[in-house]
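Field reference: sequence -> structure
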Amino acid sequence: MKKFFFYSLLQLICIQFTRAQQNVIPGEFPDPSIVEVNGAYYACGSSNDWGPVFPVYRSTDLRHWAFLSYVFNEAPAWTINSYWAPELYYHNGQFYCYYTARRKDGISCIGVATTKNIEQGFQDKGVLVEWGNEAIDAFVYKENEKLFITWKAYGLTQGRPIEVLGSELSADGLSLKGEAFTILTAEKNSWEAGGIEGQCVIKNNGYLYMLYSGNGCCGGGCNYQVGVARAKTMKGPWEKYSGNPLLQSNDDWKCPGHGTALKTKNTWAYLYHAYPAPGFPYLGRTALMSEMEWNKNGWPSFKPVPAEKRQGILMGNIQDSFSADKLAPWWRYDVASYNFKASIKEGELHLTEEKRNEKNKTGTALCVNPSVADFNISTKVTGRNQALKGLVLYGTNANSVGIGVKQDTIIVWSVKNGEYTEMNRAVIQNASVVYLKAMVTGARNMIFFYSTDNRTWVPVSGNKNDTSPVNADHLGWWSWGIKAGLFVKTDPVTGDNNAVFDEFNLLNYSSPSSNPDPKKKAGLLPANRP
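Structure field:
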């Protein structure tokens, strides 16, 4: 049994909070919310269709963040997918999470869950807001001892503009009270482009300020931006700032927005997401923090970032020897394709596809979130059977690419728009152990290798006639970034459906914008391994 179990995710998180627009949590963490409780800060982000649902991080200084728990280890029974915008709130000694999820009838609603101890997960209380075709992006604010909830409405209603609505909440925060009212209405012929969402409310100098996001949030065509409106009370009237938008894309970060602002002892801070420019839009949206200031007319702005003070993307390496008694918290699964069993025995991961879904051409995947666009992944596969098993780069179960071993055959494969294609293969003789690795650049180009001794590596291209890298442009997905990990696919003839992995490594290259030479990097040695 191996004796190391190492994860360097947080060792590189050491940044100066006085500088604006800093990546504070590595990897995918969209729609972040933040709350301060007794001197500690807690942040939570969207899971999209990935479980466990809604990761929670903790910090005492807004600079150093450590993973704490998940809101839900298993998705609430009333939900099927689209786990978005978890808004943390603390009230009367209890944590609340107001979250978005798609109900089994396909309609997105806002649910609520509570806990006394955030480290132990939340208890779901069910649907709180059901509003027409869609209710998403909750935010809760307390005004004059009354709780109010706000949300986005009419995003899927034809012929009606999108609005941010509000309603009073019951004293326990678990039900609506009174009639809903309109706060903001989206404008088509402005920077908002007909879309507003991701709002939060703060108070400063007698005004309530609503920071909100407009335009398209996600994917390669996004143009997300942040604006602000203000009012004296929650019921308005609300005035949009003529200087909007406050925050836009730049050379480093694309489509910023959907965050939460809070006041610290010395300043105002805004935690939000953006796409890293290197790897855009294949990498997921990650968490940034910017400092806010107030102009002479009482409107907020974000401090500019001089080029010489800009900092890059936080890198998080993962090396898992499977020496713990359960899966490490960085492992994620596609909730819609969750038909597998994973267990750790004597330093090995046993992954079994329990129920074959013929529409899922990828198989069962257990994945992690890459934090930068250039990285390599590797694993050691033990045992031989007819199940295809190995490494996967995963967009959705209908769009993926990977390298696997099946009995005595190495196979490079791709799934594009639900169609499986075997791209190349190589034959090995009587190997009880096979090492696999993939070198990824730009979050979509990759070269695959295999070895039987972990010393001599043989490249396997995506084309039988040349050695060109595999290009996986089809992995881009509007709602989340690529995942990297392990997979197993049931053999339809023998029924073999299990895989045994001895280790897994994800190691980043020195620069997220680098274009490494595969010949120099083939030894799987990162340039700046912590």
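Note: The domain at 6-13+22-309 is CATH 2.115.10.20 (Tachylectin-2; Chain A).
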